[in-house]
Amino acid sequence: MRLLLSLLIALPVAAQTPAGQPKTRLELADSARQAPAPVPATAAPVVRADTGVSGVAHILRSSFVRNQALLGVTLYGPSFAATVTDAAVPAAAAYLVMAGGTFFAAAELSRDIRITDGMELLATRMPIRGAGIGAALQYALTGKEDYAAGIFFGSVLGTTGALTLGQRLTTGAAMGAIFGADAAAAIAMSTMYALNTDSGHARARAAVGAGAAVAGMQLGAMYASYARYNVTAGDVQTLWTSSLIGAVAAGTAVANGNPDARTVTFTLLGGGVAGLLAGDRLLVRRYDHSRSDGSLVGVGAIAGALMGGGVAVLVGSSDRFNAATAALGAAGAAGGVFMAERWLGARPDAGRRLGQRLNFAPQALAMAVAKMPGTYSILSYSF
């Protein structure tokens, strides 16, 4: 070890001082004054020669493999083990094989195909929706509360569909498909429950919910792809927030008194749909949100709702949910959304989309009409 340290110290000195001619302290000080100041070295860009992919593609691949490994541990593995056997030891072995094998399967798959933004987003969320659809269909067909097989095959089909459909979807369309599945299933099952509240129609509600989720997935993707304005993944996230605010606001009409289940369900459902339309008009059409922007808008709504609920308690409302609590909570949530949008600053919509590939930019048209110098792209068509 001493010999190695001596070499590490001696080699740089030997490279700077000729052998047999050691410099004195005066010479060293003089050379230090005369030597030019060292120029800071700039870090050279790191090129991944082993993968041959760009940094963004590498991040998407890594995220895809990581999320699939987590799904293997929490979703694929448990449902597969419960499907193949009821015995403890074989079930544990099946779980371990599936949970560990998911990582290697995802890693190998990511080497064979290019993972896009839409594929990564769908492959993370669609297996969970697929598991719900599979469980609902299994219950609707059998009437038994044993959903393991439906969850496993539904989640696997969800991942397969995500990798297939995600290749040609933008992140906005992919998030729109997820939102469409959730919203359609919630609307269909809530309506069925309001019309038939007894438990004898549970299988019918499950079947209708599964079918609505599949149809809503297509409608959500079409909404984001063919809307006359730009729809990003963050824009779709704000629709969840606005829908919940609308449902809470509608709760002011049914919070007091003792309305029946049908009245409560239809009231909250109507408020959620109204909030969805308001979010589309006030948030999606006016701004372009990134995914972090959409999350921040949701956090602002929660913070505002908490403040509104606190004010309701301070003014003497009872500790249970009532009309005053709902009204102040909804008002606070709306104020939180307003403050979040104000903090984010001006992010106007990128342009009106006349089709999936034909884009219209009204800002460019306005500057051209004003005869401002420059070159503007009013219409663009992507091949």
Give a structural overview.
- The protein is an all-alpha fold.
- The protein has 3 domains: about 55-225, no CATH class; about 230-350, no CATH class; about 350-383, no CATH class.
- Helix content is about 70%, strand content about 0%.
- It contains 13 helices and 3 strands, in the order H-H-H-H-H-H-H-H-H-H-H-H-E-E-H-E.
- The chain has helices spanning about 1-15, 25-35, 55-85, 90-110, 115-140, 150-165, 170-195, 200-225, 235-250, 260-285, 290-315, 325-345, 360-370; strands at about 350-355, 360, 380.
- The chain has a 3-stranded antiparallel β-sheet, with no helix packed on it.
- Helix 7 packs antiparallel against helix 10 (about 260-285).
- It is globular.
- The chain starts with a helix and ends with a strand.
- The relative contact order is 0.06.
Layout of helices and strands:
Elements: H1 2-16, H2 25-34, H3 55-84, H4 88-112, H5 117-142, H6 148-165, H7 171-195, H8 202-226, H9 233-250, H10 261-284, H11 291-314, H12 323-344, E1 352-353, E2 358-360, H13 362-369, E3 379-381
Helix pairs in contact: 3-4, 3-5, 3-6, 5-6, 5-7, 5-8, 7-8, 7-9, 7-10, 9-10, 9-11, 9-12, 11-12
H and E order: HHHHHHHHHHHHEEHE
Identify low-pLDDT runs: 1-53
**Widest β-sheet, arrangement of strands:** 1-2-3
Mean pLDDT: 81
Shape: globular
Helix content: over 70%
Estimated share of beta-strand residues: under 5%
**Separate helix tally:** 13
- Radius of gyration over all CA atoms, rounded: 30 Å
Largest sheet, if any? Answer: 3 strands, antiparallel
Distance between the termini: 64 Å
Structural class: mainly alpha
- Seen as an oligomer or otherwise, the chain set is single chain
Query: What is the count of structural domains?
Result: 3
Work out the number of β strands. 3
